[in-house]
Amino acid sequence: MAKARSARKTRRNASARRAAGTRKPPARAGASGRDLLGWPPSKFALWSQRWGDPSNSYQTFPTTVLLRHPTAPFTGTASVTNLEDDLKRIAHDYLVAASSSQLVEPSLGLPAEWLDALDPGRSDPSFGWLPFGWPTTSQTLNSLVSFSASRTSTGRSPDLMMIMQASQPTGSGYGIRVVAHVRKPKCSLDHNLNQSLRSASRECPL
């Protein structure tokens, strides 16, 4: 009888060990579901700074937050034929990831209504991405635009620095800026472009 009880106990222990081996490991502290996008940066790669105090009711200027991470870019792939829409989609994913990351301190603190308005599946006339309006050949300049600049390198096709801005159409001065580096992959035969985002800033009265 003692041998039978010992054998049953051994089998139960073995089953428990096998079951434990199939359990998922606990989530890391500070991890976010957006890590699935392939952007789980180290906290040492993120640099965030805030000007102003959103809790100060006597403050007379907007609160500005700047986030930089030059060694840990958020990356995505954009199509040449659908470049602007793809840029907006990737930028929105980046803003959601950066805003929800517990590693960014001080936080970007983006208002939820701004993130919802920038969702590619929605159209909100009260807040959105400004169209790319520079460089331009027009003699009339509009300051409420996103813009781009070429970055040349010897022996290579020029890269693009895209400054994407989102704001209210009234030009309130509050909004978001995202800097994207767009380049063609080496030895690429398709029409896709690599996009790297390394900084974002926001300014709002909150």
Provide a descriptive summary of the structure in words:
22% of the residues lie in helices and 31% in strands. The chain has helices at 2-22, 83-100, 112-118, and strands at residues 47-51, 63-68, 74-79, 128-129, 132-134, 146-153, 156-167, 175-183, 192-204. The longest helix is centred in the first third of the chain and has 21 residues, at 2-22. The protein has one domain (33-50, 65-134, 144-204). It is of the alpha+beta class and 206 residues long. 20% of the residues are buried. Strand 6 (146-153) and strand 7 (156-167) form a beta hairpin. Strands 1, 2, 3, 4, 5, 6, 7, 8 and 9 form a nine-stranded mixed β-sheet that branches.
List the topology elements.
Layout: H1 2-22, E1 47-51, E2 63-68, E3 74-79, H2 83-100, H3 112-118, E4 128-129, E5 132-134, E6 146-153, E7 156-167, E8 175-183, E9 192-204
Parallel strand pairs: 5-6
Antiparallel strand pairs: 1-2, 2-9, 3-9, 4-7, 6-7, 7-8, 8-9
Query: How many β-strand runs?
Result: 9
Total of DSSP H or I helical runs spanning 4+ residues: 3
Average pLDDT reading: 76
Structural class: alpha+beta
Question: What proportion strand?
Answer: 25-35%
Biggest sheet, open or closed, and with what strands and sense? Answer: 9 strands, mixed
**What is the CA-CA span between the terminal residues?**
73 Å
Poorly predicted parts:
16-37
- Written as H for each helix and E for each strand, in order along the chain, the element string is HEEEHHEEEEEE
Helix content: 10-25%
Estimate the global geometry from the Cα principal axes. Answer: globular
How many separate structural domains? Answer: 1
In angstroms, what is the radius of gyration?
Answer: 24 Å
